[in-house]
């Protein structure tokens, strides 16, 4: 498994638009869908298609291609961008939920540093754990900053 949290641009040139909300999607590797779709949905993927993640919180679509859509209810995990519950992971690899991050910040712990160390040790697997198919560190950093601002 390569380093999923490299800063190199992994975007393909085929940036699609969600057919439901019309928001620009983010390309995701096929392994993400294979890892996270429920079995019934997994049986319908076309491995030849390019898939994208819809980041719009109000859209029910999690993944889409030119011919298929998969709703957030078709995934094995809750999607951070689409579910604001405290028990939803912000960091899927190391179990950092919103609630855990809030508690860590309140105790003056450094969750971002902890996650960075795990990433540097090549322990992350964002492409198979995170529904957006890429590194969660940006989500974690933004959420922690929001907590710190109050």
Summarize the structure in short.
With 150 residues, the protein is an alpha+beta fold. The chain contains 6 helices and 6 strands, in the order βααβββββαααα.
Structure description:
With 150 residues, this protein is an alpha+beta fold. It folds into two domains: 26-74, no CATH class; 80-149, Arc Repressor Mutant, subunit A, CATH 1.10.10. The protein is 31% helix and 12% strand. The chain has helices at 30-36, 39-42, 98-106, 111-120, 126-129, 137-149; strands spanning 26-28, 51-53, 61-64, 69-71, 89-91, 96-97. It is globular, with a radius of gyration of 15 Å. 31% of the residues are buried.
Instruction: Give the terminus-to-terminus CA distance.
Output: 37 Å
Helicity level:
25-40%
Q: Number of DSSP helices?
A: 6
Structural class: alpha+beta
Describe the largest sheet. Answer: 4 strands, antiparallel
Sheet with the most strands: spatial strand order: 1-2-3-4
Question: Into which percentage range does the β-strand content fall?
Answer: 5-15%
> So what's the overall shape?
globular
CATH architecture identity of the largest domain? Orthogonal Bundle
Computed Rg = 15 Å
Q: Secondary-structure blueprint of this entry?
A:
Elements: E1 26-28, H1 30-36, H2 39-42, E2 51-53, E3 61-64, E4 69-71, E5 89-91, E6 96-97, H3 98-106, H4 111-120, H5 126-129, H6 137-149
Antiparallel strand pairs: 1-2, 2-3, 3-4, 5-6
Helix pairs in contact: 3-6, 4-6
């Amino acid at each position: 498994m390569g380093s999923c949290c490299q800063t190199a641009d992994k975007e393909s040139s085929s940036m699609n638009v969600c057919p439901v909300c019309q928001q620009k999607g983010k390309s995701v590797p096929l392994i993400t869908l294979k890892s996270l779709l429920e079995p019934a949905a997994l049986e319908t993927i076309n491995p030849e298609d390019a898939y994208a993640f819809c980041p719009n919180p109000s859209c029910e679509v999690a993944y889409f291609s030119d011919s298929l859509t998969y709703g957030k209810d078709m995934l094995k995990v809750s999607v951070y961008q689409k579910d604001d519950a405290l028990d939803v992971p912000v960091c899927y690899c190391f179990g950092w939920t919103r609630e855990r991050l809030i508690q860590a910040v309140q105790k003056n712990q450094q969750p971002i540093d902890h996650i960075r160390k795990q990433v540097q040790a090549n322990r992350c697997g964002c492409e198979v754990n995170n529904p957006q198919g890429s590194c969660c560190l940006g989500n974690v950093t933004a959420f922690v900053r929001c907590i710190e601002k109050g």
